[in-house]
Amino acid sequence: MYRALQIPSQVRAVRAAASFTTSSRRLDVSKVILVGRVGSDPILRKTSSGKPYYTYNVATAVGQPTEGEDGKSQQPPTSWHTIFSFNEFQHPQIQRLGKGSSVYVEADLEMRPCTSPEDGTRLHDRAFLRHHKLSVIRGVKPLLEADTDEGPDVE
Fold first, then answer.
1. Tens digits of per-residue pLDDT, 121-149?
2. Nearest-10 Cα torsion for 41, 34, 100, 148
3. DSSP per-residue string spanning 69-132
4. What PROSITE patterns does UniProt report for this protein, alphabetically (predicted)?
5. How many other CB atoms sit within 10 Å of the CB of residue 53?
């Protein structure tokens, strides 16, 4: 009574490819989560259009300390990450961070090409971490605030 509809394999392949290529880009995610220590006080900068933003460094180490051949403890290597924050609503919180503060950072990852300043040849890709969320685990006052009693406490 009902005939089975047979679709040629070539048509099925085209449909599968089309469904893959038309996927929504808003579903793509490239995010980094860092838990580490701030390496220096955050620095306020301005874009070429005059918009303020902060940069700060976060140090992380992966793994447990190991024992070397000489019996001494060897710390895992430290990785340094530069974070850029264009979110003006979080600038007051970033201002209160000091070197040594323990933080949890969520950042969007974007790979940008890095070129040689001398001849413009491409060297490698550099990770650009755009600050998305910041939580302070243990705060340390920035150097300028630590010298005076006027700054707010960060704990």
1. 777 777 788 878 888 888 887 766 544 44
2. 50
3. TTS-EEPPPEEEEEEEE--GGGHHHHHT--TT-EEEEEEEEEEEEEE-TTT--EEEEEEEEEEE
4. SSB
5. 18
Query: How many Cα atoms occupy the beta-carbon half-sphere of 146 within 13 Å?
Result: 12
Domains of the chain in start order, with CATH, are 25-146 (2.40.50.140)
pTM exceeds 0.90 for this model = no
Size (the chain), residues: 155
Give me the half-sphere count of Cα atoms (radius 13 Å) on the Cβ side of residue 114.
Answer: 8
User: What is the dihedral sign for C-alpha 44, 47, 53, 57?
Assistant: negative
